[in-house]
Amino acid sequence: MPPIDDAGLALAGTMTPDDAGYRIVVDPVWGYRRLDPLPTSPEVDEFYESHYRDLLDAGGRAPDLARLVAGGPDAVIEREWQAATTHGDVLAALEAGAEEGLPRRALDVGCGTGELLRTLVAAGWEAIGTEPAPAIADVGRAAGLHVEAATAADYVARWRVAGLPAFGGVVLLNVLEHVLDPATLLSDVVTTLAPGGRLVVRVPNDFSPLQEAAHRALGGAPWWVAVPDHVNYFDHASIGELVERIGLQVVERSADFPMELFLLMGDDYRNDPAVGHAVHERRRRAELALDPTTRRALGRAWAAAGIGRNALVVARKPA
To answer: Rounded to two decimals, what is the model's pTM?
Structure first.
């Protein structure tokens, strides 16, 4: 049981950098870790408008997205790897629903440059994405993809008013860690799902046993704490609990490659982009060499052990 502070909030055990003015607590209602105090909406908006793109370009945030936005050969390699691994797994989860008669329509919330949309469209799905950052949404639009430059809440409101058809699948890949109220966002987007529809959610698996082991071995600040854009810090248990508490049934849990193993083996990528690029390439080669069945079995085993860089949950909306 984590210690309890004077405000009655359970401390998560690791503090954010002192100059940030935040600490990490366990949310008393939902059970996942989050920043305390929560940043305000204007603070988050100002960060994304003024600082996020600079950090992206410098390698300080989302290196996979940075490679795609930058374009060139690295973007082509990144796109091929994502299509064969993460996006292939999402497609397999959605196809399981389509086999039961659900509509082949999917909503990708926070779709970025639209890479998952490419995979879904190529597989014969009608795919729509929402992306609140106009410059990033434009990359997907330029490729002919259906990307709405809007927040998920704005899109869902328009969807309701227009009476648009329900979706067979809704996907949120690395979205919930960024939003101030993940429970409300999930509850909102689930209303667009047809009965029996699939929800696929991926979040960073933070404060994992491997992260804690690497932190003990290497010291320094907890590198996975990113203020103020990473507001929430989930693990396999807490993201599954959140999904179930909004009324869905979890049907699969998985994880992707446990990158912290590289740290424990001496490849310290935390502040060295060159090392980061090298270990990412080693991971990419390994995953592409595995057949999908074996790779997915590994992902399920990692999830059962509580490890893996990201936690993925597939859930079903009751009929």
So the answer is: 0.88
- CB contact set of 9 (below 8 Å; sequence gap of 6+): 25, 26, 28, 36
The helix/strand/coil state of 117 is: helix
When pLDDT is cut at 50, 70 and 90, the band that residue 78 belongs to is confident
Is the separation of the CB atoms in 253 and 311 below 8 Å?
yes
Structure-block tokens of residue 86: 């993460």
Residue for token pair 């979040």? 203
* End-to-end Cα spacing for the chain: 37
Taken in order 296, 298, 301, 305, is the CA torsion positive or negative? negative
Average pLDDT over residues 283-301: 96
| Encoded tokens for 47 | 């960060």
CATH of 86-223+234-316, one of 3.30.499.10, 3.40.50.1970, 3.40.50.150, 3.30.420.40: 3.40.50.150
